[in-house]
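Task 17 of the worksheet. Students: predict the tertiary structure of the chain below and write it out as structure tokens. Keep your answer in the requested format; marks are given for formatting as well as content.
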Amino acid sequence: MRGATTSEGLPLWPLRLMAASLVVVIGGYAFIAIGGQAEIRPGLLTTALLVLPAVAVLPGLWKGHYKTMVWAALFALFYLLVASTDAWAARDDRGWHLLIAVAATVGFLAAWWHSIQRRRTLKGRARRRLAENRSPPNTQPSSNAEDSR
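Model answer:
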């Protein structure tokens, strides 16, 4: 059985992998806010504002929307930046921050792979369309009097 595909015919698994990595990011930050060991932890409002972009892009990623995937890739880079900074600063919750950083990296790499495949697919389609629309040289119809009879 063939897997699910986007509207362009590309596989959905990179987008679903990216959605799963954002779910790990959300869960990691939720655990840090509720049960983290560090002396300075983000409050619930700060955590809610931090994970809001990840929650907002999940439905579009699951459906396979390309523009949502681009935004999610940018958010993954943001989460990588925040998690790597917090892993360096908060020693007690370093494992959770590293988990978030790994999940964000996996999500970004999945988006990168999907974008490369999409570009190749669309370029190939454009080349085929251009080749189909081009008429071969010297095959134009002649205006011969015998052809009009």
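Marker's comment: DSSP finds four helices and no strands in the chain. The mean pLDDT is 86.
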